[in-house]
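chain below, 313 aa
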Amino acid sequence: MPFEYDPELAPIVAAIAANRPSPLPDRDWSEIRSTTEGALATLRSLTPPVPGIISTEYATVTDDGADLRLRWCAPEGPAPGSAVLYLHGGGMVAGSVDLSEPKVTRLVAEAGVPALAVEYRLAPEHPHPIPVEDCYRGLQWLIEHAAELHVDPERVAVMGESAGGGLAAGVALIARDRGIALARQVLLCAMLDDRTTEPDPALVPFASWTYDDNRVGWTALLGSAAGTAGVSPYAAPARATDLAGLADAYVEVGELDIFRDENVEYARRLARAGVSVELHVHPGAPHGFDLVAPDSALVRRARADRVRVLQEL
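prediction:
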């Protein structure tokens, strides 16, 4: 086999696999939501609160009249002037601001940069363009309230992981097209391409987010349009033909992630379009590796890079 897990991750992944029930053969979005949110809730219950972080709830109204929940997480003390719009993962069908709170508050504490987490609506109840437009509305709100939040609107980044990474890339495209200048886009194991459904035999044994899961997530978001011509780049940023003028990018993905190739290709195309790109492909790392072994050397390196990028804003 050409690949293997990072040595620190291997025993942990094996223990998780031994205690995880086999997925149903016809696993659908509701099972993905249930298992994903159950696992995240367990992790959240085991994670002590991060001291020194002030969380404030806000709300805004979307263009279609829905209430959109926002959570502002900021370190105590003087404001740095920068900020990040944070978008959680979950395959487009799962996750929430509450379930992602431990990761957000730890990032804010380590970087010293406040974050606005967006409770975007999930597919399939809310298909494209609702999730990405919710995220963009969160960015608008942050820019509109920059003065009262002590934020320089020219020092705002968008950041997301997995589905949130795809949404972050979509928000970056929308922001460019609608006249908002972002300082950075931070894309972590981003779900960028609805056409990633053909299994790579070398990656299948390591796929915690599988090719079947990916098909389910994209179908929930796009319906019968998934995988066909004409899918909007705001939904699947890998579809974008013009990447010029986008915010500088930090792109990170695991070597054992089914999103590896689409992330590497997106980074390459950004660079070809004149966008400054920092790319990391972490050897031996599967999708969601930072949740598997948060204190491993691999995750400490990745987290240090993410912190550095945010501190550079």
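The chain has ten helices and eight strands. The first strand starts at residue 53 and ends at 61.
thats it, cya
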